[in-house]
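TASK: fixed-backbone design
INPUT:
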């Protein structure tokens, strides 16, 4: 093969390999609704999740502003995936990352962060109003050490990364034939950035928040009510407050998805379509199905397959854990 064959397909570095993920038709969901439901395969990013985009966007923005220089340190509070994205991009660009994470997150994410060289600090899981919450701990740590605080929840470089990449990719991959987009929000970066990008192309594209139990964002969208009820096994999504990334962004509607419904979709796409996805992807697919049924046959709905199921194997495929929670179990494991 010629050298030009390889140079045409080679990425210059890790950063260049982030994004441009495929859209995959979710066959069963599409057949059940008469719509075309497409999942953006963000688990195919180098770090295995949609958060690679946020990690890269935040680091590039800090470089442009001159606050992050060779040998610098980045501190972030994260449920895991943003920490992975930041650490891998940091490794590639010569930065060290200190990652503060609630100790309740999946064992797989904790082990992965340690494996890739993150300086991992586990803290007790506490609500945002508590000074011991992982976000506040990371902010104080950055202030005390003079490091750069990534601040993914309120740093608009997060949503800008999705406005500049994820949204335009979806528009191009659907040839502009997208009727609705749905996804869950943790920092709000993906939902907000895609909304900004798609609405700029066609204001009629319906943007729908998918929210798990235990989050206040559904109530915020529907009635400006931030009351929190219930709980969920999902990680990295749901909020008790409105992050800056979601401010002044068009969100047309919201749906609330319970864990059993999300798990059924996770197990279905794995065993029938060969797609291994994580907890938030189950929420997203369930929401896309709800939106498709509401819109009626013939529409195109896009959602986010945020990361892979292996990152949550100790929960999603742990029969003892699932039965203890009263949740569905994979039929082929039962």
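OUTPUT:
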């Amino acid at each position: 093969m010629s050298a030009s064959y390889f140079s045409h397909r080679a990425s210059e570095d890790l950063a260049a390999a982030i994004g441009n993920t495929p859209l995959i038709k979710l066959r069963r969901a599409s057949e059940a609704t008469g719509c075309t439901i497409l999942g953006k395969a963000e688990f195919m990013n180098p770090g295995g999740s949609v958060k690679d985009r946020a990690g890269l966007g935040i680091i590039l923005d800090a470089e442009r502003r001159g606050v992050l220089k060779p040998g610098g340190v980045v501190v972030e509070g994260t449920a895991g995936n943003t920490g992975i994205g930041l650490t891998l991009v940091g490794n590639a660009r010569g930065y060290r990352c200190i990652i503060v994470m609630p100790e309740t997150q999946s064992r797989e994410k904790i082990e992965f962060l340690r494996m890739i060289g993150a300086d991992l600090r586990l803290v007790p899981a506490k609500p945002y109003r508590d000074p011991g919450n992982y976000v506040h701990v990371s902010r104080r740590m950055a202030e005390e050490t003079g490091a750069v605080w990534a601040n993914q929840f309120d740093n608009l470089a997060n949503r800008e990364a999705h406005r500049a990449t994820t949204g335009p990719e979806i528009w191009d991959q659907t040839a502009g034939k997208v009727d609705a987009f749905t996804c869950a929000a943790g920092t709000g970066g993906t939902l907000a950035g895609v909304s900004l990008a798609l609405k700029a192309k066609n204001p009629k594209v319906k943007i729908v928040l998918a929210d798990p139990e235990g989050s206040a964002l559904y109530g915020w969208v529907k009635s400006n009510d931030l009351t929190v009820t219930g709980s969920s096994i999902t990680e990295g999504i749901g909020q008790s407050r409105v992050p800056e990334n979601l401010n002044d962004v068009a969100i047309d509607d919201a749906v609330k998805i319970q864990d059993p419904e999300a798990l059924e979709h996770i197990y279905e796409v794995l065993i029938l379509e060969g797609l291994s996805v994580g907890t938030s992807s189950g929420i997203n697919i369930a929401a896309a199905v709800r939106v498709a049924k509401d819109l009626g046959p013939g529409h195109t709905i896009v959602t986010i397959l945020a990361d892979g199921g292996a990152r949550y194997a100790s929960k999603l495929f742990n029969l003892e854990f699932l039965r203890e929670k009263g949740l569905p179990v994979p039929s082929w494991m039962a």
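COMMENT: The radius of gyration is 19 Å.
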